[in-house]
Amino acid sequence: MRKGPVAGTEVTTGWGLKTLTRDALDKIHVATLDVLQTAGVSVDCDKALDILKKAGCWVNKKTRVVRFPQHVVTEALSMCPSHVLLAARNPAHDFMMGGREVGFSPFGVGVLVIDPESGELRESTKEDGAKTALMSDALESVDVGGAAVAARDKPDSSYDLHMLEVSFTHCSKHVHSDAEDGDRAIKMIEMAAAIAGGTDELKGRPIFSLCICPTSPLQLIEGAAQVVIEAARHWIPLNVLSMAMAGASSPISVSGTLVTHNAEVLSAIILAQVTNPGAPVWYGCSTTTFDMKRGTATVGAPELGMINAAAAELANYYGLPSYVAGG
Amino acid sequence: MSEKSGTVRIDPISVNPGMRISVLTDRDIETIHQATLTILEKTGVRFPSERALRAFADTGAEVDFNNHTVRIPPDLLMKTIAIAPRAFTMASRGDPGLDLLLDGTKTYVGTDGTGTTTVDFETRKRRASTKRDVAMMALISDYLPSISFYWPMVSAQDVPPPVRPLHELEASFTNTEKHIHIISCIEPKTARYGIEMATLIAGGSEPAKRRPPLSLLVCATSPLTQHEGSLDTALAFAEAGLPVLFCAMPIVGSTGPASMAGTMVMGNAEILSGLCLIQILYPRAPVCYVLFHDLLNPLTGECWTSGPQGSVFQAGSVELGHYYNLPVMSGYGGTDAHEPETWQAGKDYAVDALFSFLTGPELMVPSGLLETATLLHPEKMLFDNETLNSVKAMTKGLRVDSETGAIDEIMDVGPGGHFLDRDFTCKNLRELWQPGIAHQWSPQRGDFRDPREAAVEKVKWILENHQPPPLDEKVKIELEKLLKTAGRELVS
Asked: How far is B467 from chain A (nearest CA, A)?
């Protein structure tokens, strides 16, 4: 089992930062409940709409908007595990998510690389993915690894499977992976099962985890919703990582952005829990501000740090493990 | 450019109280305090000054006149330190709006000093620093709101050593209206002229006491020794009512013990013994607590100002100073990197920046130098300014209320769509942090500009366009006369 540095607890080693008071957290939570119950979230997936309807959500089949009554939100949150084991091919690298321990993982998915030999800027390949996975295996500071760039020399219909392959072959730590849709997620789970010795062996010792992004504001597209369902069904840890841009795909104010961000993440977490109660999920965030002059996401802006620190605080508020951007 | 010159001229950093951090527990502080008292009582500190020894002997300390060593009983120390003011003002030479009130509610940022080499802004070559560099950096500091006080950043090596500090002061006072802070005054004779300059600028010795435009940083010589010249200078400043920032700067592993806590104990003893002397002779004189450190690089024997343990040490020093109810000056960002636009310089400066401010010192001297605070790159100030603006934005914390929560806004837009065309977006856009040199678009090139190029251009713009309020003509003439007199007396 890997051990991370301890942050935020009141002990003599380590120090913590409070970005939001308990009152502020309550306010954001209440505003989120209001948004989920009144405005709702658009879920563009028939299967997901059926599951949510059965769970007591108010579903409008025509507009695809799902509204979440408060009791559904509260029940779903109470079913989430507080700690999630990220098992590794090599058990010495197992990482337990939850509490105040912080681990590090490479961010993905890059699409360009500067060729280490020629210095030329070019599209990333499967081989580059393999190299980044190997580095994530070698570096002591990395707790969760995998390929950090896309295999763009492979077809769109299977590039993520190729990335997962090199992640497994080049990294013995827990691997974190994106999946485009439900079919792809199932194939990935089969790959992992082949390594673990069967789907049952994967339960409780998942050697990889999946990541989806809600589409801001307040939407779950079909592929993302399918991945949520498959991950939950197979007990594969799921990272729900919203990437809103304040001013464009979320309100311009930081706290308004936290409200839509929170509603989006919770909607996918609820879908996972009503699909399979107790499914391992994390609270993800890579939300930042929008540069109005350039039309880009400013990941170097101070707001990125502020929003992500606040998101980690929100995850703690719900007793969920979190995964946030560090710059 | 994000600086709003002309509107806000100094922009200190106030940390949202909930975001303050602490690296020492009450028990840690108590342990360091008790160890310090023991060192001061049993081992003592060397004071190579007849006047200091007598003052200590008269108040009941145990003085060894042969060894110049003073052993201070705990009750004498605590009684004396207790009368030092918790809050006081370090003033500008003009506008009271530029005065720094050291009351623990905000952190004022100053430049770093004192380097010896400058990368010439025109030729881009390294050379010994000059008086012109002191003037140039004062002008840039006067312009940048992130800088609240000016410490001459380099030494005026083109004037003779005995009058060097005086020329540095003249160049500083002429080119910025902000408070001046100096360290190079370590000879009492020179210091007298420095004090006279401050008195002239403040318009008399009483006004200089009320609104001191100049303060002094003096440093003990570790381990456990005070420097004679510095001590006499400190006493002269205290007599004139000018703030004295008393500093210890042990090198962990060479002039200090090879542990952070041990170095803290020893540095604390050096500072408290110095402050004790000042308060014995000049009760209630404004003083500030400054505990710096360096690390010994075991591979080269050089000093190492950067390093993760260093940030934690500096954070602890703030808590320790505040334990004694004294204002504290802290620092960070000392880097041994050679170039401003490198990964190392960026990491050393930025990683420490947020951490250090969250500990809440009254004064902070992080800006502008490289190569372990010896090398000046004029444009480095603009890099540091950018980091400070980020820290400022972050330490405000998040405002969560019904307006910023934006529920109506979210309900209106609903799932899908976007927030780009909303009035709320237009209204609040300016509140968001605006990128400065790091994010400038060049339409000609169709790409982002090199931040270094943007920084160099801004420095040029400041030097060509910015004018601080001028000194009074009469004061200017008096200052020149004073420099001449000092030159005749001090330079043989």
From this structure: 31
Residue A178: its H or E element = strand A174-178
Place of tokens 């001229």: B9
Distances (CA, A) of B82 to B226, B243, B384: 21, 16, 36
- The kind and range of the H/E element at B98 are none
**What residues 304-333 of chain B have any CB closer than 8 A to a CB of chain A?**
315
Give the DSSP H or E segment for A87.
Answer: none
Q: Whose CA is closest to B368, among B322, B401, B417, B331? A: B331
Alpha helices in B10-85 (DSSP H): 26-38, 50-58, 74-81
* Res. B306: pLDDT tops 70: no
pLDDT, greater one: B318 or B5? B318
Amino acid A11: pLDDT: 46
Confidence at residue B1, expressed as pLDDT on a 0 to 100 scale: 36
Of B319, B357, B392, B407, which to mutate for an interface test with A (greatest number of A Cβ within 10 Å)?
A: B407
| 8 Å CB contact of A24 and B398 | yes
**Alpha-carbon gap, residue A220 to B415, rounded angstroms:** 9
B399 touches chain A (CB under 8 A): yes
Indicate yes or no: CB of A218 within 8 angstroms of CB of B416: yes
Q: Is the ipTM reported for this complex over the cut 0.90? A: no
* Bridge partners of residue A72, in order along the sequence: none
From the list A31, A40, A302, which residue is nearest B390 (CB)?
A302
Compute φ and ψ for A83, nearest 5 degrees: -125, 140
% chain B with pLDDT above 90: 71
CA A173 to chain centroid, in Å, comes to 18
Residue A105 CA to residue A323 CA, distance in Å, equals 9
Q: How many CB pairs under 8 A join A and B?
A: 148
C-beta atoms of B18 and A21 within 8 A = yes
Nearest to A28 by CA among A214, A193, A258: A258
- Distance separating alpha carbons of residues A313 and A283, to the nearest angstrom: 10
- Taking 90 as the threshold, does the pLDDT of residue B83 lie above it? yes
Contacts of residue B409 in chain A, CB cutoff 8 Å? 251, 256
Q: Residue B330, SS3?
A: strand
Q: Which residues of A122-159 are buried (b: 16+ CB within 10 A; e: fewer)?
A: eebbbebbbbbbbebbeeeebbbbbbbbbbbebeeeeb
Most distant CA pair in chain B, distance: 84
> What tokens does B85 get?
């003011």
Bridge pairing between strands B108-111 and B363-367: parallel
Residue B272: per-residue pLDDT: 98
- Of the ranges A134-138, A275-279, B345-349, B424-428, which one carries the lowest mean pLDDT score? B345-349
Average pLDDT, integer, range A130-134 = 97
Read off the pLDDT band of B4 (50, 70, 90): very low
pLDDT at B5: 45
Global model pTM greater than 0.95: no
Would you call B411 and A293 a contact, using CB atoms and an 8 Å cutoff? no
* Neighbouring-strand partners of residue B69: B46, B64
